[in-house]
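Give me the fold.
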Amino acid sequence: MKDILRYLVTFKFWKELFIMTLGMMIAAAAVYYFMIPSKLVLGSISGLSIVISNLFGMVGINVKVSLVVMVINAILLLLAWLLIGKEFGAKTVYTAMILGPMLDLWEKILPYERLIEPGMSSVMGEPLLDLVCFVLVVSVSQTILFSINASTGGLDILAKIVNKYFHFDIGVSVTVAGAIICCTAFAINPFRMVVTGLVGTWLNGLAIDYFTASLNKRKRVCIISDNHEQIRKFIVENLNRGCSLYKVQGGFSGNEHVEIQVLLTQEEFGNLMNMMRVNNIQAFITAGNVSEVYGLWNNQKRHKTRKVRTKTDLSD
């Protein structure tokens, strides 16, 4: 309990709380202004909620979309807590549960009816434009939330579960689950609208894969240089990263060299290149992007411990 209370007063907590709130405000705007008025049903819990709300309306029962969203998300949040992890689950509890109230907030601030021009059935007046706008806006929200190990809830939870246990790409998981949800729209929408929703689901999956890869992108750097020891020390002592050393032989000259391989963030890679430029170090360098890294490289606690030990060794 003390650890929890101590965390609640940290800058990190309040910063992430603000980021999550901002991200969900953007997501709610995408749903309220582009999905609800056009009745677009993409592969999302919001889309499924629109279907359920309309089905209840057909039998004379008025059920708000925001209420259905909250009920479905409550069930999925329990799964997130149990199957994915406490941090992701706790953050998603907050983001998912405020989506419904955020929809109501946008309705009070600026009802979408005011944005619909006479003779138009939606804000953009064309399902394809509503679809593109929704995907672009909600992708911004998902990017913001994924950067702090959170999500918008709903389908993202199912995607995370599939990604964790079956090792599918998140975008693929979202697309498959979303396509199933899209098919439920046959109950309220014509065939053309359902196909539009399927296309949107596919685009959303591509966007998620793109932004996730961009967020997790690292540089795999290979360096061959006679100054390999100086480079190694900079990587270990200044960048606080581990590296691997390999003996290699030049195919043209036959000379033996040492190759350094290391994974770095974009900022760390820039610092390394700057150090080599300032010190006029001659080297053969290749660098490629890596979108997924697992294991100890991402262990922040281990990273910080190594940094403290390095400083202690230098002071000795």
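Residues 218-315 form a domain with the Alpha-Beta Plaits fold (CATH 3.30.70.120).
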